[in-house]
Specification:
six-stranded mixed β-sheet, 14 helices, four-stranded antiparallel β-sheet, alpha/beta, binds zinc ion
Length: 503
């Protein structure tokens, strides 16, 4: 039977016996909450282990090995290396539909190494990467929630599949377009995307920004800068002229745009005219078609700069991600579970610690949030996440869980102080309950899936999805390898060396 017809039939049955279903659903959720609670310690241990691995994107070898071990021991079938990326993890339990996927990532950030719970800057390994966004918590939470769903499905004979997808290199917005392109989400009915935050929240509509990341390279001709500069074609000049051109372009762009860049090759020394120069550009806007328009203007500016300098230019798209798109039907279900589970009960010590931390970081001393965020309270953010492409492929829900101290901004070392704290651990327990209950809703409530699907279809009719990643693009597997090779021997000394197991 086609899924849509099956959904329609199940929906009809569902409307005939709503009260009985509701009771069953509450009982199932309570059962799942029990599984999460009894796994609070291993869940924390998984998150803490990944914290100390602190692996950069595409190099998440220890982190994904641990996740594979945990999920396999928990009954899941785990594939590592899908879509041509060795640290891409795809785990599944169950068969057929509905197939609901939990989607997240577990990579760290460069130079984020920090001693947990120390307010002063004190790297565990100077210069080494660290979890200054708390992606380590995603692994523990995703595993525990998926395991709780699986246990509940077994106990109550719920049909379908639960999937965990951990994509590599989220911090450089790399992997998801490749996973989408490889067709991994074709057979998935809905996803819930999971991310750490300072609040318990969901949302719908466009959640963040589209982004295109690309290297623009100019090729010229070298010469002695004093002896025969007239024989040269200066690639750095072209680089600079492109920068000036883009600066003038800014006036003609919609106010929603973002453009930023770093020069990645500006030559060797002043008396050698550079025959090679490169800038790494990022273009963002509120939706992908607008970001593509800006990017096309950038290409024209690069062509102009090459023409002016007699050089040649080329560009290579490194990554391109659509904004995350959340479905209201799924957000309402997630919100129902957020309201049911509520915020963690913070101890006085945790609140005091949070205020001290905020004070030390020069932030308002407001402590930890004690109330969940109401639905609709999540305006579109300016950051990007390569998961966006997944949300234009399959109806998506979004969940942020409260494991960060409010006011502490991610992508800086302060955020690496608490991802192994009891604050993080309690946020993970609450988040895992909400996530498990929401996946159960999607597995057992065809009406939600059906509404999400029609919402999704309408959205895509308005803005059809297209791949921005070139068809011949290959994932950059060596990304961050040199950095990890350099620091891993020292970082290894901090590995917890444990084998957490869910039960
Ligand atoms: Zn993140």
């Amino acid at each position: 039977m086609r899924l849509t017809r099956k959904l329609a039939l199940l929906s009809l049955l569902g409307s005939l016996v709503p009260l009985a279903c509701q009771a069953a659903s509450d009982e199932q959720k309570e059962f799942a909450f029990g599984v999460v609670e009894r796994n609070a310690a291993p869940m924390a241990k998984i998150g803490d282990s990944i914290y100390y691995f602190a692996e950069l994107g595409m190099q998440e070898f220890e982190s994904t090995k641990l996740m594979k071990d945990v999920l396999e021991a928990g009954g899941f079938t785990v594939q590592l290396g899908a879509a041509g990326m060795p640290t891409n993890l795809w785990a599944r339990w169950g068969n057929g539909h509905p197939a609901i996927a939990i989607v997240s990532e577990i990579d760290a950030l460069p130079e984020g190494s920090q001693t947990p719970m120390e307010f002063a800057r004190k790297p565990l390994v100077p210069g080494a990467p660290g979890h200054m966004e708390g992606h380590n918590t995603h692994g523990g939470l995703a595993a525990a929630a998926a395991f709780a769903v699986k246990e509940t499905m077994m106990r109550y004979g719920i049909p379908g599949s639960v999937i965990v997808s951990l994509g590599p290199a989220e911090e450089q917005l790399i992997s998801r377009p490749y996973i989408v392109r490889a067709g991994y989400f074709k057979d998935v009915d809905a996803i819930i995307y999971l991310h750490i935050g300072d609040q318990m929240a969901t949302g719908y509509g466009l959640a963040n920004y589209a982004s295109i990341s690309a290297n623009f390279t100019f090729h010229g001709k070298t010469a002695h800068a004093a002896v025969d500069p007239w024989d040269a074609k200066d690639a750095l000049d072209a680089n600079q002229l492109m920068d000036v051109g883009v600066a003038y372009l800014r006036q003609q762009l919609h106010p929603t745009y973002r453009i930023h860049r770093v020069v990645t090759n500006g030559g060797i020394q002043p008396n050698v005219i550079p025959d090679l120069a490169q800038t790494w550009w990022w273009v963002r806007d509120a939706n992908m078609p607008d970001a593509v328009q800006i990017f096309e203007k950038l290409v024209n500016v690069a062509k102009g700069a090459a023409l002016m300098t007699g050089t040649s230019q080329e560009y290579q798209i490194i990554a391109a991600g659509w904004p995350q798109l959340g479905m209201k039907a799924i957000a309402e279900a997630v919100q129902g579970n957020i309201d049911k589970v509520g915020m963690p009960r913070w101890s006085d010590d945790e609140q005091r610690f949070a205020r001290d931390f905020q004070k030390s970081a020069g932030r308002p001393e407001v402590g930890l949030k004690t109330a969940v965020t109401p639905l609709g309270g999540r305006p579109q953010g300016y950051a990007s996440n390569d998961n966006g492409d997944v949300s234009w492929t399959v109806p998506a829900g979004l969940l942020a869980f409260p494991s960060i101290v409010p006011g502490i901004t991610i992508h800086e070392w302060h955020a690496a102080i608490t991802p192994t704290s009891t604050i993080a651990h309690k946020g993970m327990v609450a988040g895992a309950k909400v996530l498990a209950a929401s996946v159960l809703d999607l597995l057992t409530r065809p009406d939600i899936l059906q509404r999400a699907r029609s919402e999704f279809d309408a959205q895509l009719k308005q803005t059809p999805y297209f791949a921005v990643l070139p068809a011949d693009a290959k994932p950059p597997l060596d990304l961050n390898k040199a950095t990890m090779d350099r620091y891993r021997p020292e970082m290894r000394k901090f590995y917890l060396g444990e084998q957490p197991r869910l039960f």
